[in-house]
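Input structure tokens:
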């Protein structure tokens, strides 16, 4: 481990958020397109894992060299739980559509597990710069799980929220909004984990 981790400030955070927004929207659409040919909704996990992982790595590699396995961890992390969810749909015919309530809860659960699994696989990369990267597992899990709620909350759940917020959650901006939630949470988490330590913390 290097003695002094690279400093991740707010400049890193907003770049991480923008890249995650782009990766989430593009990855979801690529996965949806591939799903019409093979694997159905499970392909969304592949698309998002590849594109989000790639976009994040393009920034992360400036801070952690030789971190390309971040992409592989992102792909496997989403593909495995969505594959299991798809198998459960095939066997027990549970809801696999992203509709409220069971579909949203099912996908949120799959992304919660996927985010945790992904975060666990990414620990060995973060250990090169972070003394204790274990909180990343929880940060990743929460970020991916909440992205589903940000994308799929129905109009009848929004109550008296302002019209612009409702549009964000249901219109063409729903995917970027989900990416914003994911990027904001995970970017903030990385900033905290990668912050320079005071001498008392390093002791």
């Amino acid at each position: 481990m290097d003695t002094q981790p690279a400093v991740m400030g707010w400049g890193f955070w907003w770049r991480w958020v923008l890249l995650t927004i782009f990766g989430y929207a593009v990855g979801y659409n690529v996965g949806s397109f591939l799903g019409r040919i093979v694997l159905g909704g499970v392909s969304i996990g592949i698309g998002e894992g590849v594109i989000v992982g790639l976009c994040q790595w393009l920034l992360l590699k400036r801070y952690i060299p030789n971190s390309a396995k971040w992409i592989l961890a992102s792909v496997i992390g989403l593909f495995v739980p969505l594959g299991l969810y798809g198998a459960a749909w095939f066997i027990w015919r549970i809801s696999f559509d992203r509709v409220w309530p069971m579909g949203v809860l099912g996908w949120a659960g799959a992304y919660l597990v996927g985010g945790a699994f992904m975060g666990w696989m990414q620990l060995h990369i973060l250990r090169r710069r972070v003394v204790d990267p274990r909180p990343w597992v929880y940060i990743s899990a929460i970020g991916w799980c909440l992205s589903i709620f940000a994308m799929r909350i129905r109009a009848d759940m929004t109550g008296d929220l302002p019209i612009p917020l409702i549009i964000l959650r249901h219109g063409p901006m729903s995917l970027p909004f989900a990416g914003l939630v994911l990027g904001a949470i995970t970017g903030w988490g990385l900033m905290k984990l990668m912050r320079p330590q005071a001498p008392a913390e390093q002791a």
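The helical segments are 10-35, 42-60, 69-92, 102-126, 135-152, 163-170, 174-193, 199-202. The longest helix spans residues 10-35.
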